[in-house]
Every structure is written in C-alpha cells, then in structure tokens.
Amino acid sequence: MTEGRPQTVSQDFPGTLEAAEQAEAWLARQSGALGLAPDAEFAINLCVEELFLNAVRHGRANRAQISISSESSGVRLEFVDDGAPFDPAAAPVRRIRDRSEDFQIGGYGTGLLQKFSRRISYSRDAGQNRLVLEIDASAGR
Amino acid sequence: MDMKVSEAADGLTSVVLDGRFDIAGAQQVDAEFNAVAERSTALIVDLANVTFIASLGVRTLMMSAKNLIRRGGEMAVCGANENVEKVLRTTGFNEVAGVYPDYAAAADILRSRAAEFASRKA
Question: Which domains does chain A have, with CATH numbers?
Fold first, then answer.
C-alpha cells in the first residue's frame, strides 16, 4: 500500500488508437507503484480508453497527456489533449431503454465515464481540453 | 483476445472469449464475431475469462445482438465479472441480450428460443 504522500505518474502519448493500447499497457505497469485496487484499475482503464476514443476519433487530437495520482481519498486521473473542444461531463448520456432492433450502436462512452468516476471536471485552456476525473480508491458502487 | 466458437446441433452457438475486450481485443474479434452472429439464431457469449471491457467491446456485442434481434433470434452473455457486468448494464445492453451468471442458465433459456425459431421456420 502507498498510504501517506500522493504518488503521481505522468506520460505523453500520440493521438492514435494504438497509443490508447500503449497507455493501457503503461497503466498496468504503474498500478503496483500506485497501489491501485483492482476495481480502481478497471475504472481508470475504462476512463482512459473512453477518453482516448473521444479525443482521437471525435476531437482529432495529435497528442494526449495522462497523469494519475493515487491519494488516500481516491485516484485522480488527468487527461489533457489538443483535440476539438469536448466536455464529456456535459455531453448527453445514452442508454438502451427497451428491447428493439433500432437501438444505436455507439455513443455509450460518456455514460460509462460518468458511471465509473465520481466527478468529472472540464476546462479548455490554450487550445487544450483538460479533464480531471476523480475515481474511488475501491471504485465500488 | 482469444475467441473460440462452437456450433451445436440443437441450434445453440457458443462463443468463448478470453482476455481483454479493449480496443485491440475488439478489433481482433469484430469481423469473426459478426460472421458468427450472422449465421446464428441463439448465441451465448461466455465472458467468464474477459477481464476488461469498454465501449468498443460493447459495440461489438451490440452489433451482434442487433443482427440476431432483426432475424428473430436471441443473444445472451454469461459469466461476466462484476465490473464487466456494470459496463453492460450502464449501456443498457442487458435490455437487448440476456445477462446470466453462468453458461447453464443462459443455455436453458436460449435452447428453448432456438427450438421456437426452428418451429417458426418449419
């Protein structure tokens, strides 16, 4: 366990889907040092993947920076990218409501981001999106 | 991600996935998954060995569910761990496919659906 002072790791990635895979591999290597519980690691992985998909596919970002801090109150995930402005905290949440064949195939990432984090803060500064997600240390719920 | 398909004489098709259903995992299985769904009427996807899923993996499952529903078929998933099931339920995937704790429970339901489908076609 890494109680006490916060631990932070940070890494830059190119804005590609392949880089999302690199980011997840990087995250797996960091989780021991950060003392992440398996549920928190799952939640961070999921958020990183959704944020990459948003930034690369919709925002056409060229680069993204990920920073993860492990604190006693939870995990702080910061994602900065240079893509088009996009605030997932304010985006509509889609969910299939009933059994019919005409449901949408995509657009579920925002709901997942909101479900697997307890708070999302967005700011746009100097041409960059900056998202800060707070994730429960146990990521239960 | 590893994918094994078995097609039984009783009309039940089973897909066993093993690994991470992340971006790379979804890209690996997407084409084969769609092809299997296309020729199935009752499809069970065993997620017991799937350690991770995000929206791209759910997308692959949704495409197949849509295909099956359109043709009067049925899809189910089983064995999902707590986090994987939370992802599926957050998207509402459980509205269009059954979510069962284990393979036997899913197979019981889908076998009867496969029989119904066969009698309708006859």
Answer: 14-93+104-135 (3.30.565.10)
- The domain ranges of chain B are 2-121
Tell me the C-alpha distance between B64 and B30, whole Å: 10
Q: How many CB pairs below 8 A link A and B?
A: 77
ipTM comes to 0.92
* Cα separation of the two ends of chain A: 22
Radius of gyration of chain A (CA): 15
Report yes or no: B91 at the A interface, CB cutoff 8 Å.
yes
* A58 to chain B, closest Cα gap in Å: 14
CATH fold for the domain made of B2-121 = Transcription Regulator spoIIAA (3.30.750)
Statement: residue B21 has pLDDT above 90: yes
Residue numbers of A between 81 and 140 with CB closer than 8 Å to B: 94-101, 103, 105-106, 108-109, 111-112, 115-116
**Whole-structure pTM over 0.90, yes or no?**
yes
Query: A138 pLDDT band (50/70/90 cuts)?
Result: confident
* B23, B66, B70 ranked by CB distance to A21: nearest: B23
**CA atoms of A15 and B121, how far apart (whole Å):** 49
